[in-house]
């Protein structure tokens, strides 16, 4: 039997949800066949099986959250080899027939010194009589003691007391019944109090959550086994006094007035990231209304070109290009804050994140090295990114190492919004709806009101990294390219 354990899907994730089993007990599988679909906090991932054989057991139910390394499926590969819990030497002892003469000789796979026979784990009971090493003061030929012989009090100076086998009369100074509460079972006892200055018991993901929420782990009492601090302990410590976390129901009740949805997967990651962003990075948001009539005219010309046939061309494409150009002039927006070493990290490549609304929640996959792509390649990259995200096929690597994000609320008919930073990025740009509105054009005597294509851009940035001047220059650069795309030649 081979047990397949849940692997790390990538990016150091520690748990995943079992979404759909692609096999059932009794099915025959080959190496690299897809057997299960899992959901991490970042994406849906299909897992191939590294063994060939017949599915013997599904160890985890659909919808269950399991830790990385947990056995999830058992495969019968048809071999007679022992399972993974058997070592090589023990396997040889079990598999090889044991001859009587080998047992008497104490060979491997037979008997061990003392007459014990090798079994799967360790050795069986002794077949010879146990002998005690003589103590000082013992007679040269003491009588053999049975297994129920009396034992001297360790902390007294009385001579050893012997009694016949089966006699359970309490020895002098001993009690026949246990006194006090019974000892707790393994792992069920209360945690020992933490020693001042000692190490805090918490897993790395829990430590990160505590750091993001501003919780001092030394002030948190762990409720996990052995006093380990759990995620729930940290979240409870972060709650204001008197606030109780609601109990979550797994499924809605018939006729109920409300439905409770478990917080996990993408929704859980999004919530944690937004809380960390809102309470860690001091946000500043600036707004700018822009006449993008020239951009809309350029989009119409691009759609008519043969090389853009079959490629989605939208205002988001030109906004993305304008952002890449502007980041080259204000690199402070393409940066992150490393509080562990008190450094601002300026990124030398633009991994442009595009916020995508999917059935699983908000995902922000990013286009690697977007600043090096031409307009056509950038259009193809955006189309593929959005398609993959909506189909739920975004991989963890696609959402990692982003440097700047664009979110487009205009597709929902919303004029503008106040975006929240996607940590640890320093900036995020929100594109509002593009509508025809009255606008003053011309100068002096040529001034007039005309219907123009207008949109509102809103930029949020981390004020620890980005000064107001940098943020304003960046936003003005993006607006100038959208107002007159020909100015891109000057960047």
Question: What is this structure's SSE topology?
Answer:
Layout: E1 2-5, E2 15-21, E3 28-29, E4 34-39, E5 44-48, E6 53-58, E7 65-67, E8 71-76, H1 88-95, H2 100-105, E9 111-112, E10 116-117, H3 204-213, H4 231-238, H5 265-280, E11 283-291, H6 293-304, H7 315-329, E12 335-338, E13 343-346, E14 352-354, E15 356-358, E16 361-363, E17 366-367, H8 375-390, H9 396-399, E18 404-408, E19 427-431, E20 435-441, E21 448-462, H10 468-483
Parallel strand pairs: 14-18, 18-19
Antiparallel strand pairs: 1-8, 2-4, 2-7, 3-6, 4-5, 6-8, 9-10, 11-21, 12-13, 14-17, 15-16, 19-21, 20-21
Name the overall outline.
globular
Structural class: alpha+beta
Strand content: 15-25%
Poorly predicted tracts of residues: 82-124, 142-161, 183-197, 240-250
Oligomer: single chain
Q: Fraction of residues in helices?
A: 10-25%
Q: What does the radius of gyration come to?
A: 35 Å
């Amino acid at each position: 039997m081979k047990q397949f354990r849940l692997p790390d899907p990538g990016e150091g994730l520690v748990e995943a949800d079992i979404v759909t089993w692609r096999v059932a007990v009794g099915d025959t599988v080959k190496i690299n066949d897809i057997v299960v679909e899992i959901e991490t906090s970042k994406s849906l991932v299909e897992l191939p099986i590294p063994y060939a054989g017949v599915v013997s057991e599904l160890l985890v139910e659909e919808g269950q959250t399991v830790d990385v390394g947990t056995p999830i499926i058992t495969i019968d590969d048809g071999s007679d080899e022992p399972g993974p819990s058997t070592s090589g030497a023990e396997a040889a002892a079990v598999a090889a027939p044991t001859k009587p003469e080998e047992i008497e000789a104490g060979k491997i796979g037979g008997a061990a010194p003392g007459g014990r026979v090798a079994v799967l784990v360790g050795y069986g009971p002794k077949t010879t009589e146990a002998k005690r090493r003589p103590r000082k003061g013992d007679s040269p030929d003491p009588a053999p003691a049975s297994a129920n012989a009396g034992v001297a009090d360790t902390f007294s100076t009385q001579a050893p007391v012997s009694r016949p086998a089966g006699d359970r009369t309490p020895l002098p100074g001993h009690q026949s019944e246990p006194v006090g509460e019974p000892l707790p079972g393994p792992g069920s006892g209360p945690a020992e109090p933490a020693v001042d200055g000692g190490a805090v018991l918490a897993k790395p993901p829990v430590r990160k959550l505590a750091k993001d929420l501003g919780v001092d782990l030394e002030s948190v009492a762990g409720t996990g086994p052995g006093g380990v601090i759990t995620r729930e302990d940290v979240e409870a410590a972060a709650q204001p006094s008197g606030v109780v976390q609601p109990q979550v129901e797994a499924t809605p009740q018939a006729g109920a007035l409300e439905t409770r949805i478990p917080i996990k997967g993408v929704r859980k990651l999004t919530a944690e990231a937004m809380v960390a962003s809102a309470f860690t990075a001091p946000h500043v948001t600036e707004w700018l209304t822009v006449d993008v009539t020239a951009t809309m005219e350029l989009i119409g010309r691009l759609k008519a070109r043969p090389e853009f046939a079959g490629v989605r061309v939208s205002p988001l494409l030109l906004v993305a290009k304008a952002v890449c150009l502007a980041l080259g002039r204000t690199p402070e927006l393409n940066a992150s804050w490393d509080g562990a070493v008190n450094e601002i990290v300026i990124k030398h490549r633009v991994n442009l994140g595009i916020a995508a609304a999917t059935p699983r929640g908000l995902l922000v996959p990013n286009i690697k090295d977007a600043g090096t792509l031409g307009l056509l390649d950038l259009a193809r990259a955006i189309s593929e990114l959005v398609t993959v995200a909506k189909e739920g096929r975004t991989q963890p690597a696609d959402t990692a190492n982003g440097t700047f994000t664009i979110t487009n609320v205009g597709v929902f008919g919303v004029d503008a919004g106040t975006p929240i930073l996607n940590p640890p990025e320093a900036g995020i740009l929100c594109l509002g709806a593009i509508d025809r509105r009255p606008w003053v054009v011309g100068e002096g005597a040529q001034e007039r009101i005309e219907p123009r294509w207008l949109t509102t851009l809103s930029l949020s940035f981390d004020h620890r990294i980005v000064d107001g001047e940098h943020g304003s220059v960046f936003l003005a650069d993006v607006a100038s390219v959208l107002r007159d795309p020909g100015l891109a030649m000057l960047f």
